């Protein structure tokens, strides 16, 4: 049993049922991922209360809920800050400056990855990929894009957050939600900002535009298979000649 207050329990149950109703009868355990986002929107992390609530609603064991919650890095096991400050340190972003950005922000805040500032405003995270390589290096604040960052621009962004100044994503919505607000959105409850701004810009579609201008097309399956077969035969023949 969860230990939420009666008012919170009633609201969470109402919203959980809305989530479960999106799935066919008999398959409602598939609602677990959005329901974990729902309880995280309430507690700021996947708490013991949240795990018990999901287990009760979905007729699953708490260990089953925990197994899923600990698999995905988006689900926090301890209270997160108001803003999750994710810096991509994967290959492309790293060589474009992501590593330098992470070091600058970590030193400035005095925390490492998955740690939170004492004022509870910022949780720092080194992210493997933000799926935004066309705008590298990229920072994501509560999963909203802040593109083409530098160490200084990232520090300015941190200072704005700590000073409670509004921050504006490069693409997408015109406002940046708090961590718990965004978790409610990820649970499937729209916040009214879903149609604001494009999520793909010129760098995202540049390759497609050039291909259309030049009339380039991907080969059909038969052509691709034939080309792969020819390349393999050529490699085998060259290998025989080298013996």
TrEMBL record:
NCBIfam families to which the protein is assigned, alphabetical: nuoE_fam (TIGR01958), PRK07539.1-1 (NF005721)
Keyword set includes Cytoplasm: no
Residue segments, region Disordered: 224-243
Family per similarity comment: Belongs to the complex I 24 kDa subunit family.
Keywords: 2Fe-2S, Iron, Iron-sulfur, Metal-binding
Protein name (record): NADH-quinone oxidoreductase subunit NuoE
Organism: Winkia neuii
Binding locations of [2Fe-2S] cluster: 88, 93, 129, 133
Superkingdom assignment: Bacteria
Cofactor field: [2Fe-2S] cluster
Cofactor mode of binding and number, as noted: Binds 1 [2Fe-2S] cluster.
Molecular function terms from GO: 2 iron, 2 sulfur cluster binding; metal ion binding; NADH dehydrogenase activity
Sections of the chain in a coiled coil: none
Pfam families named among the record's database cross-references: 2Fe-2S_thioredx
């Amino acid at each position: 049993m969860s230990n939420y207050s009666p008012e919170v329990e009633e609201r969470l149950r109402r919203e959980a049922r809305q989530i479960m109703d999106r799935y066919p009868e008999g398959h409602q355990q598939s609602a677990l991922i959005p329901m974990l986002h729902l309880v995280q929107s309430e507690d700021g992390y996947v708490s013991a209360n949240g795990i018990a609530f999901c287990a009760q609603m979905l007729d699953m064991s708490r260990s089953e809920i925990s197994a899923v919650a600990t698999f995905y890095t988006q689900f926090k096991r301890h209270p997160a800050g108001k803003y999750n400050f994710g810096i991509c340190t994967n290959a492309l972003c790293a060589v474009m400056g992501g590593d330098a950005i992470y070091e600058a922000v970590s030193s400035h805040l005095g925390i490492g990855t998955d740690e939170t500032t004492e004022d509870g405003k910022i949780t720092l995270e080194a992210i493997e990929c933000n799926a935004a390589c066309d705008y590298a290096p990229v920072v994501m604040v509560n999963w909203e894009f802040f593109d083409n960052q530098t160490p200084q621009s990232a520090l300015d962004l941190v200072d704005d957050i700590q000073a409670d100044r509004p921050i504006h994503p490069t693409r997408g919505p015109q406002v940046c939600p708090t961590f718990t607000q965004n978790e409610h959105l990820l649970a499937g409850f729209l916040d009214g900002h879903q149609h604001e701004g494009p999520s793909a810009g010129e760098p995202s579609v540049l390759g497609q535009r050039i291909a259309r201008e030049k009339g380039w097309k991907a080969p059909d399956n038969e052509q691709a298979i034939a080309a792969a077969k020819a390349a393999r035969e050529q490699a085998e023949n060259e290998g025989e000649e080298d013996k």
